[in-house]
Design goal:
It is an enzyme of class 2 (transferase). This protein is about 45% helix and about 15% strand. It is built from eleven helices and nine strands. It has helices spanning about 15-30, 50-65, 85-95, 105-115, 130-145, 160-170, 185-200, 235-240, 245-255, 270-275, 280-300; strands spanning about 40-45, 65-70, 95-100, 120-125, 150-155, 175-180, 205, 220, 255-260. A five-stranded parallel β-sheet has the order 7-6-5-8-9, with helices on one face. Helix 7 links the parallel strand 6 (about 175-180) and strand 7. It is globular, with a radius of gyration of 19 Å.
Length: about 300
Amino acid sequence: MKKDLLTFADWSKAELLSLLKLAQQTKQNPADYRKALDGKAVAALFEKPSLRTRVSFDIGINKLGGHMVYLDSQAGKLAGREDARDMGANLACWADAIVARVYSHNTLVQMAETAKVPVINALCDLYHPCQALADFLTVQEVLGDVSQCRLAYIGDGNNVSNSLLLMGAILGADIRVITPKGHEVKGQILDQAHSLAQQSGAKIVASTDLDAARGCQFLYTDTWLSMGDTTPLAEIKDKFQPFQLNRQLMDKCGADYAMHCQPAHRELEITSELIDGECSLLLQQAENRMHAQNAILISLLTAH
């Protein structure tokens, strides 16, 4: 029976730990997985522009011996031509998996309903699971044990913060999301994270007070305006400026590492001093996108 990855919320702790272990193995011993996707084809549908997601999937699939077909929904004039359910069903006639980077989570849900092959969420308005797996792979490389992680996400409550909350809750980590007032995480996501945390012993905190980040080893931020948000930066800059990730905030919280999913806007949500400094994990996170995604593909496309 096929398994999709729309959000990690319905995956078990054992499954996530297995993915993290596989991601580490593919990173450390790439030659062992050179033919893991031999003969497999992956259709990649992109409604949104991308650097890291597109390149990491394309090169990663190639390194596993598979083939990726890139479909630019906008430039290829695919957007709006047919129902997402029909697109998913048709792509599944040829491809062994569908990777989709879309504006609406509902597009993924519709594709998964009709596609007879796994559908993988490469980003939507609600979740960014591939990024979260790469982030926790990075944390695991630093700490050795993700359950010992104390991570504060600081900024806009968005798809990245949602996936960090849910995955962290399953893994038993300490995840704190700190946002300006009016930009909090959706209540439904927070409730789901608290429910998952009850099973794992995770600590979940949502706050508008930066003091809530004290004691965290990792401070994480993202762009203040998500892709597609047309709000003028001038309208929110004053509200977000106190939440900038900078050396002063790192010192105040006692944090050792700075994280960002990128693209990063230097001197806005994060300073160049941190991006380029020894505390930066940004490039490690970016590299780990490929290894995390390779683990997902191997897990979903190869027989167990």
